[in-house]
Specification:
mainly beta, 5-stranded antiparallel β-sheet, 5 helices, globular
Length: about 350
């Protein structure tokens, strides 16, 4: 029974730096046992994670690391690991010499024959190159990079694509990008390697949006502000054809308060909302605040359980000050794999 539940309840992985030791730490939340585990990274692996990086995963569990920020090298190599626990990192042989600034990174399993002896994947990287929003694709099957000729249309009057302006999610073979403030949305189709025309999320009351996905559908967190002291966050289901959304659940007020209580009183709710991070797969959507001063509280919405919200247990004491750099969901770990893995309790 646990094996069956695990297929719809993905593990949540967090990777970040400890502010005092500056060592890279990783932890995992098991939604079945409802417990946090600290992953025991080998010391020799720490240099791999120390630079700022973007972390993502395929639905089968392959982890992808892409360097972020200012790159001092003329070439960019990907690192990937097929197992999130017993980590054995490999590096791509091919490199791209066109580093993209402010990258959004997504990874998808390739549509390969089931008889294939290896798990191949495609990495989508969207970033700035010579003042244009450019897409690079890496295919592990051919170990090669490709730069897509058509740039993404501007989603707003801003030039930089920081997390305060745009949000992204992957559904099937589509990578969605939305303007948080206006709801203008588009997607990149990996099948045709082209952008869809700009659309706008259509619905009532919501003023700001953060995208999320469970792999089977497109969702969004919507912020509604009635006045300076009265706001709420709702989970929205988005119709991918019409781009109309409908409210399916509201985050309980106490959970929303736990995510923003580290902000000063009077802080505009949009600022606090912009720091939220959400990642989902299977039946679950995890939400937490990526603010540097966050108290690292997490909550989750279980879609199949009537969109029920609840708060996750508190992180272990030695991880409460963790500066999270990235997170992802993965189905790779199953209960019997956990029993064979080494954890620091």
């Amino acid at each position: 029974m646990k094996f069956g539940v695990a297929r719809t309840h993905p593990f949540l992985y967090l990777w970040g730096l400890h502010p005092r030791s500056l060592l890279t730490l990783a932890c995992m939340y098991d939604p079945i046992l409802q417990r946090w585990f600290t992953l025991n990274l080998q010391n020799k692996m720490n240099p791999v994670f120390s630079p700022s990086c973007s972390l993502t995963s395929t639905r089968s569990g392959t982890l992808i690391l892409y360097p972020s920020g200012i790159c001092s090298s003329d070439s960019v190599f990907l690192r990937f690991a097929p197992n999130p626990v017993n980590i054995d990192w490999s590096m791509s042989s091919a490199a791209t010499n066109q580093f993209l600034f402010f990258p959004f990174v997504a990874a998808l399993d390739s549509q390969r024959s089931p008889s294939s002896s290896f798990s191949s994947f495609v990495v989508f990287v969207l970033g700035e190159l010579r003042n244009a929003h450019t897409v690079q694709l890496y295919d592990s099957a051919t170990d090669s990079w490709e730069v897509c000729p058509s740039p993404m249309a501007m989603l707003g009057p801003f030039r930089f694509m920081g997390s305060f302006h745009v949000s992204s999610a992957v559904v099937g073979r589509k990578v969605y990008i939305v303007n948080i403030h206006t709801g203008v949305i588009t997607y990149f189709n990996l099948g045709t390697k082209s952008w869809n025309p700009l659309r706008k999320l259509e619905g009532k009351h919501m003023q700001h949006f953060l995208l999320s996905s469970t792999g089977r559908g497109l969702y969004a967190l919507g912020l509604y502000i009635a006045d300076q002291t009265n706001e709420c966050v709702k989970l929205l289901k988005v119709n991918e054809i019409t781009m109309q959304y409908k409210e399916v659940s509201q985050m309980p007020e106490q959970l929303w308060s736990s995510l923003i209580d580290h902000f000063k009183k009077g802080t505009h709710p949009l600022l606090a909302f912009s720091y939220l991070r959400c990642t989902g797969s299977g039946n679950l959507i995890y939400v937490y605040s990526g603010s540097y001063f966050s108290k690292m509280r997490f909550c989750v919405c279980d879609i199949e359980d009537g969109y029920r919200w609840h708060q996750l247990p508190v992180l272990p004491a030695d991880l409460e000050a963790l500066e999270v750099r990235s997170e992802c969901c993965s189905f790779q770990l199953m209960p019997e794999v956990c029993l064979k893995s080494r954890f620091v309790q």
